[in-house]
Amino acid sequence: MSSGEQINWSRMSLAELQQTWNTEVEPNLQRNGLDLDNRPTYREVADAGYSGIAYALREHHDMTLTDFLETVGYVDTDSEDAYHWGIDDETTIDTLEAFLRRVERKRKETTADSKRYRLATYVRLYDAVHATDAIVDRVMDEQRQFDELRRVESVLDELEADLESYQSMLRYLSDVREFYTHLVNRHGAKFNPAENVDHAEIWADKAPDEPDNPTLTSEQVGALYAAAEDVTDRLIVLGLCAWGLRRNEVAALKVSQLSLAGNDPHIEFGDERKNGPGTVALIYSVDELAARIDALEDRGPEWTGYLFPSARSSTGYITGDTVQARFRKIADRANVRVYGDPPTSKMGRRFWYTTYNKAVNDLLDNLDVIAAEQGSSDPSVVLKNYLSEAERRKYRREFMRKRLANAFEVEQ
């Protein structure tokens, strides 16, 4: 009998569990050669004979093993943005994370983000439909192959009702198949239950024409802004959707870049900005930006000037990935989806460009009368030949401001 099996985990308080971990479990794991610089997985803890702690935490303390390990020092470097899968089965969570680490190494982190969201949707729905989240255990027994095929099909049937497009359905199916393939190749699963489902054919008649570059609607941006819980979230939505910044530009914003006084508030990027002007006009919500600066200045000399400071980061500010993660959490709270998937930060920037084009069209529509008086059928002639550069800029910004107000000035 292992030492872990002799421990009555269920009778311990949380403090006693923490003490037992520090004095017995962790030293034993280290003696067995486990590298404790990284958080141990459930499988590693179970293999060492301590699986009972996970059951006790779940049943008596409403915690997962991951939650508990954070209380004894295993905190991720960016734990406030750590992903919560919404299930309890530690084996499934560990294999999902292992799969996504491989995706990140082979491809891009943004690809892993999208897969993470879709797989989380799948495993939560699987749990809701079948009253179990032990997805990995289900594919370790070859005798369950036919039964598990039917289980996966029933989850996909439920998923279909929540998705708006054929392409979204195919992306979900592809990710689910890829995850099960990972279980077969890396974790000893006996079969891939998603390999032979015929939902790609079943869904084929739902294939509409979709835009190559989907964007957010004005109503969706308003919902995102209304769902922002604090000033950081609001400024992230504003930075992406109202100012048209890239997520890395939002993350690294510094007070020295900002000019808020006068009639031309703007952000100065200089020559280092990629594929765009070095100056970005702040057409909307300058007051909220100024209030954020006032609040940060109250911190005194410890504030280094960044609008999104981070004590954990070597740069002194949050990362673009953190901006992306927070934007996605806001979208989850707002229940905003674009063709069945959560919006990316790039869609916020795309909304800005789309809205700006509409504002220019609004301006041209209003110049029709003047154009007619000048004997021209093209209002752009008036815009180019009869208005100064300063006047053109002024009118474009006025129409853009109205468009942004329609999106952001929603009932809270």
TrEMBL record:
The UniProt record lists the Core-binding (CB) domain at 90-184
Which GO annotations describe the biological process of this protein? DNA recombination
Asked whether the keyword Glycosyltransferase is assigned, the reply is no
CDD domains, alphabetized: DNA_BRE_C
Q: Which residues form a coiled coil?
A: 142-176
Alphabetic keyword roster: Coiled coil, DNA recombination, DNA-binding
Q: Does the keyword Coiled coil apply?
A: yes
GO molecular function: any one? DNA binding
Domain Tyr recombinase: residue ranges: 211-409
Q: Which InterPro entries match?
A: CB (IPR044068), DNA_brk_join_enz (IPR011010), Integrase-like_cat_sf (IPR013762), Integrase_catalytic (IPR002104)
> Any idea what this protein is called?
Tyrosine-type recombinase/integrase
Q: What is the lineage of its organism?
A: Archaea, Methanobacteriati, Methanobacteriota, Stenosarchaea group, Halobacteria
